[in-house]
Write a structure and sequence with these properties.
The protein is mainly α and about 130 residues long. The chain contains 2 helices and 2 strands; from the N terminus they run ααββ.
Length: about 130
């Protein structure tokens, strides 16, 4: 026996050429839009973070300045209290020739609008 190819009929052919659509490239536009939105969001976050950090540094500087000024204010109040102390003022007054008077006079003044005159003058000796 010998082998010979069997003839195929036109009806049995399973393959045929069909005109179809062209193969499409993948859509790039949606990916570009998503990438652009992502980059914009990233840059927005970086800008916001930078602004917040700058504000935080300014706030820290202001707090430091407030603390320094509070210390200066406390020192000035202490200095004022020391300068107002009578024990500090008395020697300075004596250097200037101011003395405590030996006798005092008490004046009573009538302050009504009709009369601006001294009503009574009392003389007290040795009262300080």
């Amino acid at each position: 026996m010998s082998a010979r190819p069997q003839r195929s009929t036109a009806q049995d052919q399973g393959l045929r050429v069909v005109k179809g659509k062209r193969s499409r490239r993948p859509a790039v536009a949606p990916w570009m839009i998503m990438a652009l939105v992502g980059i914009t969001a990233f840059l927005g976050l970086v800008f916001a973070r930078t602004s917040l950090d700058k504000s935080a540094f300014e706030l820290a500087e202001l707090n430091r300045s407030i603390a320094e000024q509070s210390d200066i204010n406390r020192e000035l109040r202490l200095e004022i209290a020391q300068l107002e102390n009578p024990a500090h003022i008395a020697p300075l007054a004596e250097e200037m020739g101011l003395i405590i008077p030996q006798e005092t006079r008490q004046l009573l003044v009538d302050l009504t609008p009709e009369s601006n005159q001294v009503v009574k003058a009392e003389h007290n000796e040795g009262t300080q």
